Amino acid sequence: MAEPSPGLSLLAAYLREGERLIEEGWAPARIDDVLEAWGMEMGPFRLARKIGPYWDRRLRTIAGRRPMAEQPPQIRERALAADADVEMALVEQMISVLALEISRLWDTVAPPVADGWRILEVLLLGAPAFRGGVLDAARAFGQESVCARLMEIAGRRGPPYSPDELLERGLLIPGDRPADDVLLDGGASD
Asked: May I ask the CATH class of domain 6-67+80-184?
């Protein structure tokens, strides 16, 4: 079976991460509200309703690092504090996981890669252009913060959430495709 397009893979990751957040105690409407208030065009659950059942089912079949349930589990929402820090943690988690998905798929978008990803993030996923899309938002959070968030999630959910080599070694460093130089020389540093 052929690999799905990067755009479909990114959409699938967004929907899958919404489901992970439900499992961790968030209500779907609150996930959507927090991400939309931050700048996403739509939260993952409103997006799933908009794309309709055919595309929702198709996105669920995309192979990924994590399984995606046909129906989100019915887990009771925990009493998560309604404060800015808790909500920003949700945003940072989602952006970190999307940055990891972009890192995994980095070379599947034809050069110029950064511009190609910006088109996918902003036009297809609805990432906020005023924040520079997912990658610039992740860069604003900082490489250490993004990797720490991913390690925190990996501690709860397993190794598929661990930062990959490209993410750890340059994807979030500002510049034009900075990770290539690091990875092309086998990881040696100057």
From this structure: mainly alpha
